TrEMBL record:
This is Catalase. GO terms for cellular component: cytosol. The keyword Iron applies. The keyword DNA-binding does not apply.
Amino acid sequence: MPDEKPLFDPTVDTQSSNATTERPRHPGNGGETQQAPDHGAMTTAQGGVVSDNQNSLKAGARGPTLLEDFAFREKVFHFDHERIPERVVHARGYGAHGYFEATEDLSDLTMAAPLQEKGKRTPAFVRFSTVAGNKGSADVVRDVRGFAVKLYTDAGNWDIVGNNMPVFFIQDAMKFPDLVHAVKDEPDRGFPQAASAHDNFWDFISLMPESLHMIMWAMSDRAIPRSFRFMEGFGVHTYRLVNTEGKSTFVKFHWKPKLGLQSVVWDEAVKINGADPDFHRRDLWDAIQSGDFPEWELGLQIFDDEFADNFAFDILDPTKIIPEEELPIRVVGRLVLDRMVDNFFAETEQVAFCTQNVIPGIDFTNDPLLQGRNFSYLDTQIKRLGGPNFTHLPINAPRCPVLHFQQDGHMQTRGPKGRANYEPNSWTEGGPRADPKTGFRSFPEQVSGEKRKLRPESFADHYSQARLFYRSQTPVEQQHIADAITFELSKVETLAIRERVAAHLPNIDEELAARVVEGLGLAKQPKPHEPAVKPVDLPPSDALSILKNGPGAFTGRKLGLLLSDGVEAKLVEDVTAAFEGAGAVVEVIAAKVGGVTDAGGKTIEAKHQINGAPSVVFDAVAVIASDAGIADLVASHPAKGFAADAFAHAKFIGLGGAAGQLFDAAGVTGRDDGFFDLEKGAEPFVTACGKLRFWDRVA
Ligand code: HDD
C-alpha cells in the first residue's frame, strides 16, 4: 500500500516551501552560493541511471530495506571490495608522472632504448615511499625511502626499483623476509608503527654484521629527508649495459637531485609527523602543481671487468658502494616530474614495479639480492593486484605494442581476436613470433660451480665501508648518527641487545662507540665483536655527506613568515619579493585565521594560523611584528614555540619591527650570526638561507 504522507528527502531543506516537491540538482555539496554545475546523470556500474542516491528501497518509509534494490546492493558491494592488500613493504608511497630525457647518446655502451639518442624523451612514473610503515603512517619517520622509476620505453617497461641509499641491509634475498619481519611492528603487540626503534629490529641487526654499513646510512640524516625532491636515488645493485655487439659493461645507477640534498633534524621529524603527517606528499604535490617541477640527473658509474677485479670489494655485494671519487659518475640524462596522478588508487596504488622489468641493453648481474628480487616482485604484484593481468592496468601497460599468447585470467581486458592462441601455428593470421634480433637476450656469461648454499668470502668485510661512511661525514652529521643510534637503542628494552649493538661500533669508529656507550649509560664499552675481516681505513668520500652537497641556494625551499597586526606592508612585500625572486616559496602565518591587518588598515592574507604552522614545516623563518601587535604573539604559546624551535633547529631567522621580543619571550635572548635584521634589506638573509641552516649554533 503506498504511503499517504509525502516522503522526507534529507537533502532538501524542509523549512522552505515546496520542500518535498522539488529535488535540488546537486544535493549536499555545501556550495550554496555556487551555481549548480551541470552534472551528468549518475548510473550504476551497469550503466543504468540511478533515480535516488539518498534513500534505499524500503517497504514503507519506516520499513525494512528491500534486497531488490540492486543499485544499493551494487554500491555497497563495491565499497566492501575497495581495498587491495597494501604492499608488504613500501606500503606508504606517493607517485608522479614525468619523463626521462637522455642528455647523451650512449649507444656505444647499450642498446637501451631511452639512451640511444641525445634529447630523446621517455615517459616515466616514479613512486617514492617509506619502507616499514603501513599505508596510513607518517611521512617523516626514520626509514629508508623507496625511489622506484618506471620508464615506458619503446622496447617495453624498464623499472629501476631503487632506494635513497646505495646499499642494503642484507647480502642475500634469503634473508629479506627476516629483515622485514624484524623491522615491522612486532607480531604479538602490533607496534611500533613505522619505526625501527624496537627490540626485534636491533636484535636482528646485532646478529647480522653485514647490515652495519646500511645501518650507518639509516641512522644518518639520509633517513629523514626534507622532501623527496631533495634526496638521491640509487639502483643499488651492479647491473650490466649491453651494446649491439653484445659487449657488456657494468653499471650502477644514481639519481642526483638538481636542488641538492637536504634533510630535517630528528626533533623536527618528530614534530612534523604531528603537524603534517603528509609532509612529503604535500611537498611533491605543491611543487608539481605550482609548476616547480622536481628534477634529477641520471648518473652512471660505468666499469669493466678489470675494474671489478681490482676493486677492493665484490661488485656483486649490495652492501658495498663504489666511492664516486674512485669511479666518477657520468651524467647521461635527466628525470623530470611534471604531472600529478589523476587518481591515487588507480595510479600510485596500482603501479607495479618489478626489478625483472628490463629491456634489451640492460641486464642483471649475479648479485644474490637482485636475483631474489627478480623472483619476488612479480609474485607480489599478482597477489596484490589480484591476478596476472595487472599489466593491463593503464599505469602498468607498456606504451609499445604488446603481442603474445598469454590469455584469460582474472580481469582480462584484452580479447585477442582469431584462432591462434599458441605458437608455432600455421594460420595466416597466426600472431606474433619471437625475434632473436630485437628481442631480449641474456648476456652469455660463463657460469659454473658446485650447487651449494654459500656466501662468497669476498662478501665478508662488513665494517670497512661503514667506517668509510661515518668518517666521510661532517662533525654535525657524525653527532646525528651517534644520537640516532642512541635514541633507537633507548627504545630497546633488552640490555643484551643494546650491548650487542654497542659491541659492533668500535669496529666502525671508536669515538662513535664511545658516544653511544655514554648515551646509553653503559658502565663500559662491551667487548668488541670479532670481525671476520679486519676493517681497513679507506679515503673519506665527500659525496657521502649531505652537508657537503647542499644546494648553496634557497631555491625550491620555503620561508615561514609570521606576522602580527600593524606591520608595515612594504617590509612584508620586500621580504616576499626577495625570496620569491630566489625561487623560494613564502607562506604567511598569523595569529588569526585569515591574516593580519597592516599599518595601513589593509588585510595581508595568511595561509596558516599559528596553531597549525609550527616552524618545523619551514626551511627558514622570518617574524615581522609591530609595537602594537607583538603582544598577541608573545601571549601565544605556539608563536613562542615557533621561535624557540626555529632557533633550536639552527634555522636562519629574519626579524622585522618588534619581532625580537617574541624570541626573548621564548627564552632565545642571544642573537648569533644566524639572525638577520630585515630592515637592513632582505638580500643578506636570502643569501644566508642558501646554506639552509646555521650549523655553528648547534655545533
Ligand atoms: Fe623491494 C617493494 C626497493 C630488496 C621484495 N622494494 C619495493 C619498493 C622499492 C623497493 C622502492 C616499492 C616499489 C613501489 O613503489 O611500488 N627492495 C628495494 C631495494 C632493495 C630491495 C632498493 C635492495 C637493494 N625487495 C628487496 C628484496 C626483496 C624485495 C631482497 C625480496 C626478496 N620489494 C619487495 C616486494 C615489494 C618491494 C615484496 C613490496 C611491494 C612490491 O614489491 O611491489 O616484492
